[in-house]
Amino acid sequence: MKPTLSVIIIVKNEEHDIRSCLESISWADEIIVLDSGSTDKTVSIAKEVTDKVYTSIDWQGFGVQKNRALAYASCEWVLSLDADEQVTDVLHHEITNAVQSANSFIYKLPRLSSYCGKFIRHSGWWPDYVTRLFKRGEAYFSNDLVHERLVFQGEVAKLTTPLLHVTYKDLDEVISKINQYSTLGAKNSFKKGIRGGLLTAIVHGFWAFIRTYIFRGGFLDGAEGLMLAISNAEVTYYRYLKLFYLSK
Fold first, then answer.
1. Is residue 248 over pLDDT 90?
2. Treating both helix axes as pointing N-terminal to C-terminal, what angle do 171-191 and 222-247 enclose, rounded to 10 degrees?
3. Shared-domain flag, residues 59 and 78
4. Whether residue 9 is found in the same domain as residue 85
5. Cα-based torsion angle of the residue sequence 72, 77, 82, 85 in order, rounded to the nearest 10 degrees
6. Strands, DSSP E only, in the chain?
7. Mind listing the pLDDT tens digit for each residue in 140-159?
8. How are beta strands 53-55 and 118-119 bridged, if at all?
9. Which among 5, 9, 117, 228 would be 20 to 30 A from 170, CA to CA?
10. Predicted pLDDT at 82
11. How far is residue 201's CA from residue 207's CA, in Å, rounded to a whole number?
């Protein structure tokens, strides 16, 4: 009997991305979209593709929300996607072969991400392996506010075809995400007992730039590599500053 696959996606105000994401996985046996209070056309667009669109506005972080979406899944296998990710035809076939062979219960995929219109091949962004494909019941998400991870036991197998991540489309989105992720990162670190300060923010921000641009080859990504290194430094700098103010 052919294995079945649920795709789970958590969303909020993703009208610019959600259609492309959903169209790329229209072949899935089940598509579950969990919205956390969109005020744009995200929900109506999702309902054009799937009748399994749910709402949960009690936001407790990315990990908790993904576990809520996972609870709606009914198929044998689960693929977790973000709204700005897309599955190519080649990746579709590799996923199909993987779940049919079931050589592993957990798979990670290389993710190819774009920054201001350019796909980044260095800077620590490639190959950005993300563990997203798993047999239902074999894994769940950590309850982190941001940068949640899949929790499981056993070995992880690798797929070879990249998942496309069309993110940071322009500088407005870069600035918005610097603010969003530095805030969430600060809150997450604060819960873990980590504290910040001005000197700590400067040192960690500087190191984030050096690590991205020099040690991870960001200079090979041209102008966008330099821009990415600077924005990585900024999100780190502001995360530790916000940690400092959370501690006061």
1. no
2. 40
3. yes
4. yes
5. -150
6. 5-11, 30-35, 53-55, 77-81, 85-86, 106-115, 118-119, 128-135, 139-141, 150-152, 157-158, 163-165
7. 999 988 889 999 998 999 99
8. unpaired
9. 9
10. 97
11. 10
CA–CA distance, 25 with 87 (Å, rounded to integer): 6
Using CA atoms, how far apart are residues 69 and 73, in angstroms rounded to an integer? Answer: 7
Residues 183 and 91 in one domain: no
Q: Which residues are 174's β-sheet partners?
A: none
C-alpha span between 181 and 242 (Å, rounded) = 11
Domains of the chain: total: 2
Residue 110 amino acid letter: P
| Structural domain harbouring 220 | 171-247
Is the predicted pLDDT of residue 25 greater than 90, yes or no? yes
Shared domain check, 95 and 150: yes
Do 10 and 48 belong to one domain?
yes
The pTM for the full model equals 0.91
- What's the pLDDT score for residue 247? 85
> Residue 81: pLDDT band by 50, 70, 90 thresholds?
very high
Helix (H, G, I), strand (E, B) or coil at 52: coil
CA distance 86 to 103: 24
**What pLDDT shows up at residue 29?**
98
DSSP-based three-state secondary structure for 182:
helix
Q: 81: how many CB neighbours lie within 10 A of its CB?
A: 22
Q: Is residue 41 domain-shared with residue 81, that is, in the same domain?
A: yes
Given 165, 182, 203, the domain boundary residue is 165
Task: Indicate whether 130 and 175 sit together in one domain.
Answer: no
Query: Angle formed by the axes of helices 222-247 and 198-210, to 10°?
Result: 160
